[in-house]
Write a structure and sequence with these properties.
Elements (H helix, E strand, L loop, with lengths): L13 H9 L5 H23 L2 H28 L11 H27 L1 H30 L10 E6 L10 E2 H9 L4 E16 L4 E9 L3 H5 L5 E2 L15 E4 L1 H8 L9 E4 L2 E8 L15 E4 L3 H4 L15 E9 L5 H18 L1 H4 L12 E5 H4 L6 H36 L1 H9 L4 H34 L6 H4 L11 H26 L4 H7 L13 H32 L9 E7 L7 H16 L4 E7 L9 E7 L11 E7 L3 H5 L3 E4 L12 E6 H7 L9 E4 L3 E9 L14 E5 L7 E8 L7 H11 L6 E5 H8 L1 H35 L1 H9 L4 H29 L1 H4 L11 H27 L3 H5 L3
Parallel strand pairs: 4-9, 6-8, 15-20, 17-19
Antiparallel strand pairs: 1-10, 1-11, 2-10, 3-4, 3-7, 3-10, 5-8, 6-9, 7-8, 12-21, 12-22, 13-21, 14-15, 14-18, 16-19, 17-20, 18-19
Helix pairs in contact: 1-2, 2-3, 3-4, 3-15, 4-15, 5-13, 5-15, 5-17, 13-17, 13-19, 13-25, 14-18, 15-17, 19-25, 19-27, 19-29, 20-23, 25-27, 25-29, 27-29
Length: 930
């Protein structure tokens, strides 16, 4: 048995990871020559700056970003200049032109930095505003990059495919039997090789300290070779390790397991670890970052497929190797160099057609096509990595997230553009003087765009840091509940693709918010600007200007985000208020598997009986019970039923969800009985089988309401009598409609892995130490896994809805704040520009309410225009979010009305404040204003 080694040295800090990514902005040869040295210098500087706290780190990053801006472009130009890595020319004129170009770029950057540093408060507000938008876009793109764009860490991933067999219920992306896998492998020509694996295996790893569950993956001996994976230490599994069932107890550690648990100790190779009570020899360590071809699989170890019976009690109960109906094996294959996916699909379906003729009972017929061979699907590995058939929904979620953060970035850009327009107004004299001295308008526009681009790049650097931090918040969005459980902060890396995305967004942002202000600022009336300087009235004779249009756009975008947030909040409320069919309060859940402790059935049954009895006697415990599955669990057992006297319709689904429970399960979860009773206490497998069904089950097969006492064949024809009928509930997810469901007594259908449910007075977690002590009195090495309250479990089941509501709600409130500040800024600016006009109106007899009406009316009209455009935009996006909502329509009138009312009120207040100030203008002072 291997003891745990000391913890490995710490990994790179967040700042070091960000700096490593920033180095990708330099040319490749420069990184090869100077990259390591620059990282070491930065690490030392970061350590020294950290002693001075946050101010020291901020100064360090300011210097780092400035150095980056000043050196990246020259290095790229030098790389393609004569003598560099690119073209080689001897033309002195070309060298001179490139040198002039570099000098001008550096001159513009230096001038831009000086201009920005003269107004640090303004620059800080601009950078902070933009960094929020850029950071949100980078964070979402990093998730999309991890899920959709990053190629699998295998050799030639474009030639790797996943092979699926249609399930009996009509699903196109199910697993295959081992015998079918062998035939697919041996009877097709489109594949170089084919491997099988099983991901959902939990084993117990015993150390000197304790026994704990870890994730294992069972794979065929050719799995690693097919994918082209190299070992980090030792060797990987080979075909010779996977010949005879139970004969080769060897294992390969994941790199993360090796580094985290065994301290990267290379001497681990050749030693033994104890898995499920059996010694396994460690033969090697997998390559860093390799976890397989399925995103939801994060194995700690790999075991030979033929060691399945040792790895899981489930595989001991069934003849998995020769039973074609036992579909438990996932398949991955490598295409021949000239083969296509279409050709491979035709070949495996041809093999399945032959098998359907030879084995019609197992290989022919599904719910949707009862007389056809089971269809085979072949998908590219990168598409299959997110789950068969999930690509469309994954892309749709990615599209929705990009639209959301795109709106946030647009709002930020519009607000900054408004600020730059006001700043340009104050720089009229400077621009006029430079034009009068001979500067071209194009030269000034280029200089101003350089300033805005520098601001965008600095904001991008800050946004990159925010993105790395915010992934902790955004990971639960995940694109699917299964994927979000396996994506961690460590798995999301900011690679070169993410860096260039951030750079591109930053430059685009700088040009987006800088172009129009630069264009406007360089069109002054020279005579008036030199005479009046920064004073004067802008856009004389115009009722509405560009700043007004930007405010309208901000209001419209804010309305779209707020309506989206309102819809998701209403959806979350509907999910929490839905009828569950059980009481989730006061219940503690924890799982245990006696099979992993090598207990035989009789011993396991005795353990479960004593465990429930001991836990029930703990002070504060009302009741305790066992179940195969707890409520609202996406995974679950299904089995075919046949009610006596019922003739199924053509294509009717007769495979229904089932749970194995102990008699007090219904009491523990407070599931109400409509008729009948719970299971007989102490009933065993030799007694007549008892069956409890739900209301939907009874209504489907006995619409006359007389289901109690009826008989149903379960599990291959075993007769069972209905002894109770419960209310409908939620079994697999909150969104599901009422579905037929039935329960069998756990004591009549033994399973080694069960979930313990404990109802207590008060806080459920308070009794866990006592529960753990009671279990350890029976077996000191029994690990308890998945410890959670039922209320917390429901929260986890709704994590995507809750996170989406929180994210969009927060972004919507941010957008509302920015839009209200934009309205206030425009109104305040308009009041300052119209001070003389307001004074004249007041002197001629205008009352305060007239001035209030003038200013508030202007702001209200802008808000109204934005609300109309935003409402149309929200209606246009309704199809994009409809599939993510529960219990509410995407065009919900209440949500639209509430959001419009809130936004209108905020817009009114933003206009009213400067209007009050305008109403108090002294006419005499106003007349002297200009």
């Amino acid at each position: 048995m291997m003891t745990q080694s000391p913890a490995p040295p710490r990994g790179p800090t967040v700042s070091e990871r960000i700096y490593h990514v920033l180095l990708y902005a330099y040319p490749p040869r420069f990184r090869e020559q100077r990259g390591r040295e620059m990282q070491e210098v930065f690490r030392d500087s970061h350590t020294a700056s950290g002693r001075h706290g946050l101010p020291g780190l901020m100064r360090l990053w300011a210097r780092t970003v400035i150095d980056l801006l000043a050196s990246v472009i020259p290095e790229h130009l030098a790389a393609i200049s004569p003598g560099g890595r690119g073209h080689r020319h001897d033309s002195p004129r070309l060298q001179e032109r490139i040198g002039d170009m570099i000098d001008k770029v550096l001159q513009d950057i230096r001038y831009a930095l000086r201009a920005i540093m003269k107004q640090p408060a303004f620059a800080g507000v601009v950078v902070l505003t933009l960094s929020l938008g850029i950071g949100a876009n980078t964070a979402i793109f990093s998730l999309i990059n991890e899920v959709l764009l990053r190629p699998l860490p295998i050799v030639e991933p474009e030639r790797i495919v996943a092979v699926y067999t249609a399930g009996s219920s009509g699903g196109q992306y199910s697993e295959s039997s081992y015998r079918d896998y062998v035939d697919f492998r041996d009877q097709t020509d489109a594949f170089v090789d084919m491997a099988g694996f099983q991901t959902s295996v939990v084993v117990n790893l015993a150390t000197n300290e304790a026994t704990e569950p870890i994730n294992a993956m069972l794979v065929t001996g050719n799995y690693f070779d097919l994918l082209g994976i190299q070992p980090a230490a030792g060797r990987l599994l080979v075909p010779g390790d996977d010949i005879t069932p139970g004969a080769h107890p060897v294992t390969v550690l994941s790199y993360e397991m090796w580094r985290g648990r065994f301290g990267s100790d290379s001497s681990i190779v050749g030693t033994t670890v104890t898995i499920n009570g059996t010694p396994f020899t460690v033969v090697g360590v997998a390559a860093p970052g390799f976890t397989g071809t399925v995103m939801t699989a994060r194995p700690d170890i790999w075991l030979p497929l033929k060691m399945a019976a040792t790895a899981s009690p489930l595989f001991r109960q069934f003849p998995i190797w020769d039973t074609r109906g036992a579909r438990w094996l996932a398949i991955v294959a490598r295409l021949e160099p000239e083969a296509t996916i279409a050709r491979a699909r035709v070949e495996v379906n041809t093999v399945m057609a032959r098998l359907a003729d030879e084995f019609p009972g197992s290989n022919r017929g599904t719910l949707l096509a009862p007389d056809e061979p089971r269809s085979i699907q072949v998908l590219p590995a990168n598409e299959a990595a997110v789950g068969g058939g999930r690509m469309e929904s994954t892309v749709q979620r990615a599209r929705l997230l990009l639209v959301i953060v795109g709106l946030v970035l647009f709002i930020a850009c519009a607000n900054v553009a408004n600020m730059l327009l006001a700043r340009g107004r104050r720089r009229r004299r400077e621009v006029a003087v430079r034009l009068a001295l001979g500067a071209s308008r194009g030269r000034l526009i280029r200089q101003m765009l350089t300033e805005s681009s520098v601001l965008g790049i600095v904001a991008g650097g800050l946004g990159l840091a925010l993105a790395l931090w915010s992934t902790r918040v955004l990971i639960p969005l995940g694109f699917s509940a299964a994927i979000s459980n396996f994506i961690t902060v460590e798995t999301i890396t900011l690679d070169a693709k993410v860096l260039w995305f951030t750079v591109g967004v930053s430059l685009f942002t700088g040009l987006l918010f800088g172009t129009v202000p630069a264009w406007r600022a360089t069109r002054p009336d020279l005579v008036q600007a030199l005479r009046d300087g920064d004073a004067g009235v802008e856009n004389r004779g115009r009722r509405y200007g560009l700043r007004d249009a930007l405010v309208v756009a901000q209001v419209a975008s804010s309305l779209v985000l707020l309506i989206g947030a309102g819809l998701f909040i209403r959806s979350l409320q509907a999910a929490y208020s839905t009828r569950l069919g059980f009481n989730p309060n006061g219940v503690l859940l924890t799982s245990m598997n006696v099979g992993l402790q090598n207990m035989e059935q009789e011993e396991g049954e005795q353990f479960f009986r004593e465990a429930v009895q001991r836990v029930s006697q703990i002070p504060g415990v009302q009741s305790a019970s066992l179940a195969l599955n707890h409520p609202v669990q996406s995974a679950g057992a299904r089995a075919t039923v046949q009610p006596e006297g019922y003739q199924p319709q053509e294509g009717e689904e007769m495979e229904l969800s089932v749970n194995l429970v102990t008699p007090d399960y219904f009491k523990t979860l407070e599931i109400p009985f409509l008729q009948g009773r719970t299971f007989t206490a102490g009933i065993d497998s030799a007694a007549p089988t008892e069956l409890i069904i739900n209301e939907a089950f009874a209504a489907r097969y006995w619409p006359d309401g007389n289901a109690l006492g009826k008989r149903v064949q379960v599990f291959g024809g075993r007769p069972a009598e209905i002894v109770g009928i419960t209310a409908n509930g939620k079994y697999r997810n909150i969104r599901e409609d009422n579905m037929p469901y039935y329960y069998l007594a756990a004591s009549q259908f033994y399973q080694p892995g069960m979930t313990l449910a404990v109802r207590v007075d008060g806080e459920p977690t308070s009794v866990f130490p006592s529960v753990r002590a009671a279990i350890r009195e029976l077996d000191a090495a029994m690990p308890l896994t998945g410890v959670v309250t039922l209320r917390q479990h429901l929260g986890n089941a709704l994590v995507q809805e809750r996170t989406m509501a929180t994210l969009i709600g927060s972004l919507g409130l941010l957008a509302l704040l920015v839009a209200s500040v934009g309205i206030y800024g425009v109104m305040a600016y308009a009041v300052s520009q119209r001070t003389r006009e307001i004074g004249i109106r007041t002197a001629l007899g205008a009352q305060s309410h007239d001035v209030l009406s003038l200013v508030v009316g202007h702001g209200t009209r802008l808000a109204a225009a934005g609300i109309v455009l935003g409402g149309l935009g929200a209606l246009g996006l309704s199809n994009l979010i409809a599939g993510f909502l529960f219990g509410v329509k995407a065009t919900d009138p209440m949500t639209f009305a509430t959001v419009i009312a809130v936004l209108s009120g905020v817009a009114f207040l933003a206009s009213y404040i400067p209007a009050r100030r305008a109403a108090k203008v002294d006419p005499m002072l106003a007349l002297r204003y200009e």
